[in-house]
C-alpha cells in the first residue's frame, strides 16, 4: 500500500496526488515510459488500455487508448514537454503532436520522483489546468480516486520489476 | 524589401507568413534570440518594446513587453518549446513559464529558416491557434500586415548585423 503525504498545489488550477510508493524511482520511471509496463497500471481497473505509443523525449508524441468495460475506446493523444530520466516527466494534451494544437487543452501533468530512502519514492503528480472549470470537472471525474487507485496499481507493478 | 512566397497553412487553424528575406539565416536567428536586437524589429513601428527577457532553450521563458504610442504596455509572456540553432524556433503563450498554464492559450508560433542561396533565407512563420475564433480574431488584429511589417524591419536589422 502507498502512503498518502501532504503536499499542497504549487500553482493555480492544480490538482495534486502525492504518495510514498514502495518501489525505487528507477522502476517507477520504467513503469511510466515503457508501453508494455504502463498498460498494466495506467487506468483504474476494470478499465484497460488497448494501445500505447510513446516517443519519450521533449516534443515526442504519446498516445494512450483507454477502454471501458463495455469495450468503448477513448484515445488520449499528447506530447512530452520535459523528460529527466528517473526524476521528472511533463506531458500535456494541449498538443496532439509537436506542435499541433489539440481541440481542447485540458491539462499538463508534472510528475516528480524523489528518493525517499529504503528503496521508496516520494511520488508527486500534479495536474495543472487552464481554468477553474476544468479543475472542477476533473475532480468530479474522480481525479483523487482514479489517480490514487492507479498509484496502488503502479506500486504493485513497479515493485515486481 | 522581402519577397512574398506562396506557402499554404500546414495544419488547421494556422496563419502563415512566408517571405524570402535578404539576410542569412544565422543573422535572422540572432535577431530572434538576442534581446537587444529583437527589440529593434519585433513590433510594427511606431509601437516599441520596453522589455525583453529570453531564456532560449526548450522550457525556457520569454517575456516581451510591447508599448503603444500612448505609452500603454502589453506584456507577452511565453515559453520556448523547441529551439534548433539557425533553423527553427517554436514558442507558445499557453504557458507563462515551464509549466504554468496561462490564463488564455492563444497561439503557438513555429518559425523555420532555410537557406535560399545568395545569402538569403526562406523565412516561414506559422501561427497555430486552438480554435477557429482565435484565428479570425488574429486576422482581424492585422496578422498579415503586422507580421509582414515586422519581416521588413527584421530584414533591415539582420542585414546590418
Mean pLDDT of chain A, as a whole number? 97
From the helix content, strand content and strand pairing of chain A, which structural class follows?
alpha+beta
**Count of the domains of chain A:** 1
Largest sheet of chain A: 8 strands, antiparallel
Q: What is the quaternary state of this protein? A: homodimer
Rg over alpha carbons of chain A: 15 Å
CATH class of chain A: Alpha Beta
Q: List segments of chain A where confidence is low: pLDDT < 50 over at least 5 consecutive residues.
A: none
% residues in beta strands of chain A:
35-45%
Instruction: Supply the CATH architecture of chain A.
Output: 2-Layer Sandwich
Please, how many helices of chain A?
A: 4
The CATH superfamily of chain A is known as START domain
The most extensive interface, with participating residues per chain, is: A-B, 25 and 25 residues
Strand and helix order of chain A: EEHHEEEEEEEEHH
| Side-by-side strand order of the widest sheet of chain A | 1-2-10-9-6-5-4-3
Q: How far do the termini of chain A sit from each other?
A: 16 Å
How many E-type strands of chain A? 10
CATH-defined fold name of chain A:
Alpha-D-Glucose-1,6-Bisphosphate, Chain A, domain 4
Q: Describe the global form of chain A.
A: globular
Helix content of chain A: 10-25%
3D structure, described in words:
The structure is a homodimer of 161-residue chains. Chain A is an alpha+beta fold. The first copy, chain A, has one domain: 2-Layer Sandwich (Alpha-D-Glucose-1,6-Bisphosphate, Chain A, domain 4). Helices cover 24% and strands 40% of the residues of chain A. Chain A is built from four helices and ten strands, in the order ββααββββββββαα. Chain A has helices at 25-33, 35-38, 132-140, 143-159, and strands at residues 3-4, 14-21, 48-54, 61-67, 73-84, 88-92, 95-97, 100-101, 107-115, 121-129. Chain A has an eight-stranded antiparallel beta sheet. A two-stranded antiparallel ribbon of chain A has the order 7-8. In chain A, β4 (61-67) and β5 (73-84) form a beta hairpin. In chain A, α1 (25-33) packs across α4. The longest helix of chain A is centred in the last third of the chain and has 17 residues, at 143-159. The radius of gyration of chain A is 15 Å and the shape is globular. The two termini of chain A are 16 Å apart. The mean pLDDT of chain A is 97. The A-B interface holds A 11-13, 58-59, 81-82, 90, 92, 94-95, 98-105, 108, 110, 128-131 and B 11-13, 58-59, 81-82, 90, 92, 94-95, 98-105, 108, 110, 128-131. Chains A, B: InterPro entries: ASHA1/2-like_C, START-like_dom_sf. Chains A, B: This is SRPBCC family protein.
